[in-house]
């Protein structure tokens, strides 16, 4: 946990944060609205003897008292999908409307993609891209099991992506859930902190910035882009968003999500960021008993 | 007549008159199949389009999607049509099979467990032979599991290996 020490000055109750990072994550699933409503999914799980705890902030998020939600009837039927609670935040923040054209820049294995599909009422066109061919099969099989007919899967580099062929000049909404150092997944991957630190974060930040810039470029005027990572590193979070705010016609906007969080940073390590970054959200493991996460919502204003 | 491609999603023609690709089914024939075989009315598919990519591999997505997309997948796989008997996919049966009224075999919990484990089993069935939608009751309602092939008193599970579960 030494790699986390540099965050002590920015985290309230650092001891509680560290203690949470050492605990395993609760087992959480998301109900797939394409195939079932939460009440039926809860009833089906309870009928199998799986105790369920509902989450107040999102009716589709359920804590289940089994390590293997994949071995239940609701899973087989595509009613539920194993998804870490805090990773359900970006799709809620993006909040696309049914019929929208949406681009998911780094989509595999598809938890957020299929969540977006459900929020679109499985209508419109959701282009789910990933540059990793190996991970595409997981994305495809999740979309199939969950019955997400509006998902088109592509295998490309998000930085050079275009709207060609999709019948739109620009997307209405884009999710840039970018590759990151994944520090916030330490509760499920014990080796998550092996190769992290300021240098590793700076190294990956240019890729993240390029993906976010492309996301903004392919979004229509007035459309929204959500940027998210599962890391605590400000170099990959506020610094990336700050650079894109300075370079592209885009503003940071507020969004509501009923989970405890801390505001985005406006200064770190001698650097200052745009004041609006305070409207980004940092989710720490001790706040909601989840993994760590960062999420910012942008609005394009050309 | 042109040939089917393996890299592009091409919209099924509305009917025989609009057919330009050899051996490609029409939207009309797909809708007729679901109505005649399973009793699923065409209205269920009103907002959806059907696509072929790979010979006889039919996919379903919302209808507003443009024709000719060169993508890895579009929507979900729906139907296999190049054999004599057409075969719906497991995921199509799960997604649209709730609307089925014919050729649905209702399994007990034990039979359903064997079915999703991929096992073949003796089942009493006095309807048509061939591909059936297998279903069971889940929290008070019939819920489709997937597709089975019924022949000579036996229901063969068509659940793909990767979807099989020991429940």
Protein architecture, described:
By secondary structure, chain A is of the alpha/beta class. Chain A has 2 domains: 236 residues, Rossmann fold; 58 residues, Sun protein, domain 3 (Alpha-Beta Plaits), CATH 3.30.70.1170. Helix content of chain A is 28%, strand content 23%. Chain A contains 9 helices and 15 strands. In chain A, strands 5, 6, 7, 8, 9, 10, 11, 14 and 15 form a 9-stranded mixed beta sheet that branches. Chain A has a 4-stranded antiparallel beta sheet with strand order 2-3-1-4. Chain A is globular, with a radius of gyration of 18 Å. In chain A, 56% of the residues are buried. Chain B is an alpha+beta fold. Chain B folds into 2 domains: 89 residues; 61 residues, Archaeosine Trna-guanine Transglycosylase, Chain: A, domain 4. Chain B has 3 helices and 11 strands. In chain B, the strands form 2 sheets. Chain B has a 5-stranded antiparallel beta sheet with strand order 1-2-3-5-6. In chain B, a hairpin with a 4-residue loop joins β2 and β3. Chain B is elongated, with a radius of gyration of 16 Å. At the A-B interface, α2, α3, α6 and β7 of A face β3, β4 and α2 of B. β7 of chain A pairs antiparallel with β4 of chain B, so a sheet runs across the interface. Chain B: It comes from Halarchaeum grantii. Chain B: This is DUF7122 domain-containing protein. Chain B: InterPro entries: DUF7122.
């Amino acid at each position: 946990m030494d790699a986390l020490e540099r965050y002590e000055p920015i985290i309230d109750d650092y001891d509680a944060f560290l203690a949470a990072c050492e605990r395993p994550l609760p087992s959480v699933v998301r109900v797939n609205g394409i195939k079932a409503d939460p009440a039926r999914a809860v009833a089906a799980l309870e009928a199998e003897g799986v105790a369920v705890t509902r989450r107040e902030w999102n009716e589709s998020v359920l804590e289940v008292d089994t390590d293997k939600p994949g071995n239940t009837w609701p899973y087989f039927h595509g009613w539920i999908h194993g998804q870490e609670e805090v990773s359900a935040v970006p799709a809620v923040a993006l909040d696309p409307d049914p019929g929208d054209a949406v681009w998911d820049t780094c989509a595999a294995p598809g938890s957020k993609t299929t969540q977006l599909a459900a929020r679109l009422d499985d209508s419109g066109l959701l282009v789910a891209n990933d540059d990793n061919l190996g991970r595409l099969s997981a994305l495809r099989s999740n979309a199939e099991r969950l019955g997400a007919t509006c998902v088109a899967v592509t295998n490309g580099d998000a930085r050079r992506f275009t709207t060609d062929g999709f019948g739109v000049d620009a997307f209405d909404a884009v999710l840039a859930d970018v590759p990151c150092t994944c520090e916030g997944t330490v509760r499920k991957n014990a080796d998550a902190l092996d190769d992290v630190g300021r240098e590793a974060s700076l190294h990956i930040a240019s890729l993240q910035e390029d993906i976010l810039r492309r996301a903004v470029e392919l979004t229509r005027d007035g459309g929204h882009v959500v940027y998210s990572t599962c890391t605590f590193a400000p170099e990959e979070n506020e610094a990336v968003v700050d650079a894109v705010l300075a370079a592209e016609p885009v503003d940071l906007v507020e969004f509501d999500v009923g989970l405890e969080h801390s505001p985005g940073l406006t200064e770190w390590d001698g650097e200052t960021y745009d004041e609006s970054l305070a409207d980004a959200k940092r989710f720490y493991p001790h706040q909601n008993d989840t993994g760590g996460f960062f999420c910012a919502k942008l609005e394009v204003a050309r | 007549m042109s040939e089917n491609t393996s890299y592009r999603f091409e919209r099924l023609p509305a009917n025989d008159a609009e057919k330009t690709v050899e051996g490609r089914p029409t939207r009309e024939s797909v809708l007729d199949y679901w109505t005649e075989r399973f009793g699923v009315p065409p209205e269920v598919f009103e907002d959806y389009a059907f696509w072929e990519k790979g010979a006889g591999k039919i996919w379903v997505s919302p209808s507003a999607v443009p024709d000719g997309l060169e993508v890895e997948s579009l929507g979900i796989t729906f139907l296999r049509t190049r054999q004599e008997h057409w075969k719906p996919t497991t995921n199509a049966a799960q997604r649209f099979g709730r609307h089925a009224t014919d050729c649905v075999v209702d399994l007990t919990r034990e039979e359903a467990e064997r079915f999703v484990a991929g096992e073949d089993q003796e089942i009493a069935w006095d309807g048509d032979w061939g591909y059936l939608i297998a279903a069971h009751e889940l929290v008070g309602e019939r819920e489709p599991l997937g597709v089975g092939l019924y022949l000579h008193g036996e229901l063969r599970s068509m659940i793909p290996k990767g979807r099989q579960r020991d429940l």
